[in-house]
Amino acid sequence: MPSYTHEAIVSLFRARATLASTLLETALGIDLPKFERAVLRDTNLSQLVPVEATADLVIVLGRENDERAVFAIVVEVQLSKDPRKLRTWPLYQAVLAAREACEVVVLVVTPHEDVAAWAREPRALGGGVSWWPVVLGPSEVPMAVSPVVQ
Fold it and tell me: How many whole angstroms separate alpha carbon 31 and alpha carbon 24?
C-alpha cells in the first residue's frame, strides 16, 4: 500500500501535468522537444492487447544446482537495417531482466558491416539515457587461417 507521502507527491504531478516536464528542464537541465500539451494517461502499463515481442533466441546462464539466472543473452540476427528493432531490442532486454532477475545483453549478429555500424549507434531513450546492443559483425569475427581437423 502506497504511503501518504507517496500519494501526496503523485497528486502534485497529477494536479499539474506539466510539472514533470518543467522540473526535467529547469531543475535537471534536460532538453525536451517542443510541445503544446501534457496529457495524463492510464498508469497501468500492462499490455492487455498482446504486443509481439519475440526474440530470435534467449540464452539464460546459470550455475549447477541453482535455478537462478546469473546472466542472460538475447540473440538477434539482423540482415538489414530495421528501424522497428530500435524500440524492440531495449524492450527485450528490460522484459528479460525483469523476468530472470539478472543482467541481460542484446547481442546483434550480422554478416553485413553497414548493418553492424547502424546497430552500434547509441539510441536515446529519454532523460539522458542512451541504449545500444552488443554487436558482432564481420570485423569482430576472427578469420580462420587453417582448417581445424578433429
Answer: 8
Task: Give pLDDT tens digits for 4-27.
Answer: 887 888 888 889 888 888 887 887
Nine cell digits for residue 111: 554478416
Question: Do the beta carbons of residue 132 and residue 102 sit within 8 Å?
Answer: no
> How far apart are alpha carbons 101 and 87 in whole angstroms?
21
Q: Strand 57-63 to strand 66-77: parallel, antiparallel, or no bridges (unpaired)?
A: antiparallel
- List, in sequence order, every residue forming a beta bridge with 136; answer none if it has no partner: 109
Q: Indicate the helix (H) or strand (E) that contains 108.
A: strand 104-109
Which helix or strand (DSSP H or E) is residue 113 part of? Answer: helix 113-120
Q: Per residue in 52-76, pLDDT tens?
A: 778 888 988 888 888 888 899 999 8
DSSP 53-120: ---SEEEEEEETTEEEEEEEEEEEE-SS--TTHHHHHHHHHHHHHHHHTS-EEEEEE-S-HHHHHHHH
> Considering the entire predicted model, what is its pTM?
0.72
Count of positions (residues) in the chain: 150
